[in-house]
Amino acid sequence: MKSLNFLFNSLLILAFVSFLNSNSLSPSAPVVVSSIFTLTGHTQPVYAITYLNDSHLISGSGDTKIKMWFNGTFITDLGSTESPILSLITHYGFFPISGSKNNNIRIWIPKLRNAFVDFSKQNGSILSLATLPRFLIASGSSDHSIHIYNVTTRTFIRSIQSNSSVNSLIFFKQRHLLAAGYADSTIIIWNYRNGSEFTRINGHNGSVYALVMLKNGNLVSASADKTIKIWNVSIVPPVLEKTLTSHNGEIKCLAVLLNGNLASGSTDFSIKIWDVNNGSVITTLLGHNGTVNDLAIDSKGYLASASDDKTIKIWNTTIF
Ligand SMILES: *[C@@H]1O[C@H](CO)[C@@H](O)[C@H](O)[C@H]1NC(C)=O
Ligand SMILES: *[C@@H]1O[C@H](CO)[C@@H](O)[C@H](O)[C@H]1NC(C)=O
Ligand SMILES: *[C@@H]1O[C@H](CO)[C@@H](O)[C@H](O)[C@H]1NC(C)=O
Ligand SMILES: *[C@@H]1O[C@H](CO)[C@@H](O)[C@H](O)[C@H]1NC(C)=O
Ligand SMILES: *[C@@H]1O[C@H](CO)[C@@H](O)[C@H](O)[C@H]1NC(C)=O
Ligand SMILES: *[C@@H]1O[C@H](CO)[C@@H](O)[C@H](O)[C@H]1NC(C)=O
Ligand SMILES: *[C@@H]1O[C@H](CO)[C@@H](O)[C@H](O)[C@H]1NC(C)=O
Ligand SMILES: *[C@@H]1O[C@H](CO)[C@@H](O)[C@H](O)[C@H]1NC(C)=O
Ligand SMILES: *[C@@H]1O[C@H](CO)[C@@H](O)[C@H](O)[C@H]1NC(C)=O
Ligand SMILES: *[C@@H]1O[C@H](CO)[C@@H](O)[C@H](O)[C@H]1NC(C)=O
Ligand SMILES: *[C@@H]1O[C@H](CO)[C@@H](O)[C@H](O)[C@H]1NC(C)=O
Questions:
Q1: Which of 148, 178, 185 lies closest to 163, judged by CA?
Q2: Displacement of CA 32 from its chain's centroid (Å)
Q3: What whole-number distance in Å separates Cα of residue 168 and Cα of residue 251?
Q4: Distance CA 55, CA 57 (A)
Q5: Pick from 69, 260, 288, 316: CA 20 to 30 A from residue 235's CA?
Q6: How far is the CA of 288 from the centre of ligand 10 (A)?
Q7: Distance, CA 10 to ligand 5 centroid (Å)?
Q8: Is residue 235 one of the residues assigned to a domain?
Q9: 260, part of any domain
Q10: How far apart are CA 152 and CA 12, in angstroms?
């Protein structure tokens, strides 16, 4: 374990440096609206996906496996847990971190096909994860807590308690704040460095499943109430800018496209691409035969979608 620790820490520093040096994205180009790949192999719903170093896709499923894919092809299983995988993030571009239905959080090291096991102290499922600065992560649980951990040392830093399941988390770069979407429809913006509440948003009428930040700094929330809401969070209390309606089901996931527009996935099996300036639907991507649970976008504009139909689809969204 000691040498694993040493190797991990060295890799983490390398990853962090190259992450800092690789933050520019190329502008988007024209056309095409069909899935270019369907990735099959998982034997249960796929709940979570994340891009590793902009090219390799990592997926986590109800079948408890973490799989790695590249360019439409299965590469390898990174491993498996004892429990369905519900959440995934990539830390500094290189290390997938998974959260499970039991209370596991694991940091995976793809090169070694190995993981640091289970440093969570939460009592419920890990429903959401977010990367924070200085090697910290936040994990949101069905036990109503958010925990802050230092990934390098795998140590617990603090717990931020509320009274509802934490479905979604997003870090605000500009303000050093952490927004959390709760099952009771509340959004709370926390100061994660001391655990105090900064402000809260009431406006949804259903579980808040997903949160993303737009390039202009607005916060976007997606809910079981079938709406997406855009909030100006530079004002306290935050101001509702727009409500996007068109999905016929609960909205489970969001992603920001390269040009700043929005993608959303729903229990209506569809993915919608929205123009964030006027709130209109640019197109609806059909093909999944089940709820769309998670979305991820790579630096070339390929959108990956994970579904209850046990597949992942890759879409060419370079036009939007
Ligand atoms: C994606 O779309 C762009 C623009 O139309 C095109 O240049 C590119 O070849 C497409 N990629 C694939 C894999 O189809
Ligand atoms: C990805 O796969 C396609 C065929 O499906 C192939 O034409 C292309 O060269 C591959 N790209 C890379 C980077 O391997
Ligand atoms: C991305 O990560 C995978 C798995 O560790 C590795 O095989 C691949 O070489 C990496 N790609 C880049 C560009 O670093
Ligand atoms: C988990 O449960 C234990 C025992 O019931 C309790 O002491 C602890 O405070 C709980 N932790 C959280 C994060 O709720
Ligand atoms: C996390 O741990 C690493 C290694 O000890 C340290 O460099 C870093 O400052 C810690 N982060 C915070 C926020 O304390
Ligand atoms: C907690 O309970 C209060 C009412 O007692 C409610 O207003 C609030 O939105 C709840 N949710 C969270 C996440 O704090
Ligand atoms: C937490 O930090 C913020 C910003 O630094 C500060 O405004 C607030 O008073 C602090 N809260 C507590 C309870 O220390
Ligand atoms: C909220 O949802 C409930 C049940 O889904 C519905 O009865 C109620 O009218 C909704 N309220 C608003 C303000 O939309
Ligand atoms: C948010 O509101 C402030 C104050 O009205 C305004 O200056 C700012 O441009 C708004 N942000 C966006 C992204 O619209
Ligand atoms: C929204 O804006 C887009 C791009 O400017 C435009 O093509 C579309 O017609 C607009 N839709 C509505 C309903 O105004
Ligand atoms: C879609 O799912 C349903 C129920 O799981 C199944 O009966 C049906 O065959 C599926 N359709 C396709 C096209 O896979």
A1: 185
A2: 25
A3: 12
A4: 6
A5: 260
A6: 26
A7: 14
A8: yes
A9: no
A10: 8
User: Which ligand is the nearest neighbour of the Cα of 236?
Assistant: 9
Distance 205 CA to ligand 5 centre (A): 39
Residue-wise pLDDT for 106-132, tens only, equals 999 888 777 776 778 899 999 999 999
Q: Which domain holds residue 174?
A: 41-244
pLDDT at 8 over 80: no
Q: Is the CB of 168 under 6 A from ligand 4?
A: no
How confident is residue 149, by pLDDT bands cut at 50, 70 and 90?
A: very high
What are the structure tokens assigned to 22, written together? 């690789």
Model confidence at 162, in pLDDT bands (50, 70, 90)?
A: very high
- The total of structural domains in the chain comes to 1
- CATH number for the domain spanning 208: value is 2.130.10.10
CB-count burial class (<10 Å; 0-12, 13-18, 19+) for 109: buried
Q: What is the dihedral of CA 3, 8, 9, 14, to 10 degrees?
A: 130
In a domain, 273, yes or no: no
Assess if residue 157 is contained within a domain.
yes
74 token code pair:
């299965």
Distance, CA of 20 to CA of 7 (rounded, Å): 20
Q: Which residues lie closer than 8 Å to 179 by C-beta, 6 or more apart?
A: 169, 170, 172, 187, 188, 189, 190, 211, 219, 233
Helix (H, G, I), strand (E, B) or coil at 155: strand
- Determine which residue's CA is closest to atom 11 belonging to ligand 7: 196
Cα distance between residue 35 and residue 304, in whole Å: 9
